[in-house]
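Blinded run. Sample ID left blank on purpose so nobody reads anything into the name before looking at the predicted structure. Input follows.
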Amino acid sequence: MKLILLGAPGAGKGTVSKLLTAIDGSVQISTGDILRGAVKAQTDLGKKAQGFMSRGELVPDSLIMGIMEKRLQEDDCQKGFLLDGFPRTIPQAEALNELLLKLDIKLDMAVNLDVPRETIMERLTTRRTCSNSSCQEIYNIKSKPPKVEGICDKCGSPVVQRDDETPNVIGQRLDSYNEKTAPLANFYEKEGLLKSVDATVTEDVINFIKKQLQS
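Blinded prediction complete.
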């Protein structure tokens, strides 16, 4: 499968991606992952991206697209890929269209994970993350708490609330998403690729996507 997953922060893109990759061996690709991978591998593009990242600046779209072009041609993408959180803007979507045309890759669909704002607020404000950078196990104090309060089950490190998961910051992130990224749904609807699904229940999302791919 070759999919783009759209949805606000906390809509469940990462969870859905992981479950979908288990179906047919498609790989999950996020811009954060490929940027970190390119920097770690010290590729020419990675070195350029590192300069922007170390200065706290946004990596230019031209660099991101260069890294994405290399990533999509790697062997593990032959079975398929899931773009998680990319593209984020209309210019990125247009650049991605050009890149896919160049690489002779055809998208199956863009899936918009639709979750009510109040559900996202509850999901993110109750989420906790292991503070150990090499673990980063995720918990939820309501639905998946650690066995010992405040302590990671896997490595024993403290479990914390991330700075970007407080109610005020989440509200800002959702407002930013609605302004900059939500218009992508209209973009892919015009392309005839958009499928929207109520993403409140993860299992329903997986079944919906499987059904769409079969049809």
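Unblinding after everyone has recorded impressions. Residues 29 and 83 are 5 Å apart (CA to CA).
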